[in-house]
C-alpha cells in the first residue's frame, strides 16, 4: 500500500506513453503516444488506476467485488447480470473521498485555465489497464461521457466510468480472456471536447478484406457517436496507402447526427438539414490528410490500427484535424493468413503454376 500512496493520482497526457499503460490504461496511454508521434490530440489528463484502487480500498468495494464475482460462471447470464447490477449500484452509492476528489477537480480547473474557459466541455472516458492490446479490445464495453461541464459533473462521470468496469459484458469478457481482478483496474481520461463538423473512424487496412495497401476512412456529420454505434451508413473513402490517391468514394445519405445538451453532456439525436444529408462530410484534402496521419501512426506503432478522428469546424485546414483514439486492429491482425504458396512443395512449382494461370 505504501507504494500505491506514492503513485500519482492524476497525470497529463503529455507526460505518458505506451509504457504507462498499467497506470493510465490502454486508451490514455495511446493518447500520450499519439502526442509523441506528433499528432494533434485534444488536451487532457488521466485519473490513474492508483486512484481507482485507492477508491475501492477506502470504500470496501474491493472486498465486495471479490466476494461477488470471484469464481462466478461467466456463461451464466442471469448470475453475471445480477453481479453486475449489485457491484455497479454499490459504486454509485459511494462518495469519492476528499483526498481523491480534490485532485480530480483541481486538474479540471487547471485544464480550464489552460483553455481560457471556466467550464470547458470534456469527454470523460474509461481507460482499462487491460484495454486495447493486440489480443484484447474493450471497445464499447466501458462507459464514455461526452460534453461534460463543471468539476462536480466530471467527478460524477469518473465514478460512473469506474462502475462501468463491471457491466455484464465487461465481466464476461474479462473472464473469457482470463483477465484477473487485479488487472481489472480502470483509469479515466478527461479530455477537451472538439466541436466537430464531422467525425468517424479510420482503419489502416481494409476492414472488409484485410488488404494492408489501403487506408479506409468512414465519417458522418457531427460527433462520431452515430458512426461508432452503427446508426448511420457513413461516407466511405478508400485511399491507396502508398500514393495517397483516393481510389474509391461512396457518399451516403446521413439523415441524423447528435448534438450535446446541458452540463451533463446529454446527446440528442437531431435531423441533418435536407440539403446537407447527401453531401460529403469531408473534403478531398481532409481525407488525404487523415490517410497520411493513419499511415504515419501505423509506422510508429508497427501494426494495423483502428483510429477515431474528428474535424473541427472552427479551425483552418490542416489544424482542424484531430485524432481522438488509436487502438490495435484486432480482427484481421489475429487471423492467420494462408501462405501464398500453400500446397506446393517447392518455390519453382508455385511459379510454374502461377505462369500457367496467367
UniProtKB/TrEMBL annotation:
An annotated GO BP: gluconeogenesis
EC number(s) recorded for this UniProt protein: 2.7.9.2
Pathway: Carbohydrate biosynthesis; gluconeogenesis
Catalytic activity: pyruvate + ATP + H2O = phosphoenolpyruvate + AMP + phosphate + 2 H(+)
Keywords per UniProt: ATP-binding, Kinase, Magnesium, Metal-binding, Nucleotide-binding, Pyruvate, Transferase
UniProt key word Transmembrane helix: no
Molecular functions per Gene Ontology: ATP binding; metal ion binding; pyruvate, water dikinase activity
Obligatory cofactor(s): Mg(2+)
UniProt domain Pyruvate phosphate dikinase AMP/ATP-binding: residue ranges: 22-340
Record-linked InterPro entries: ATP_grasp_subdomain_1, PEP_synth, PPDK_AMP/ATP-bd
Enzyme class name: transferase
Family note: Belongs to the PEP-utilizing enzyme family.
PANTHER family for this protein: PHOSPHOENOLPYRUVATE SYNTHASE
Function: Catalyzes the phosphorylation of pyruvate to phosphoenolpyruvate.
Stated name of the protein: Phosphoenolpyruvate synthase
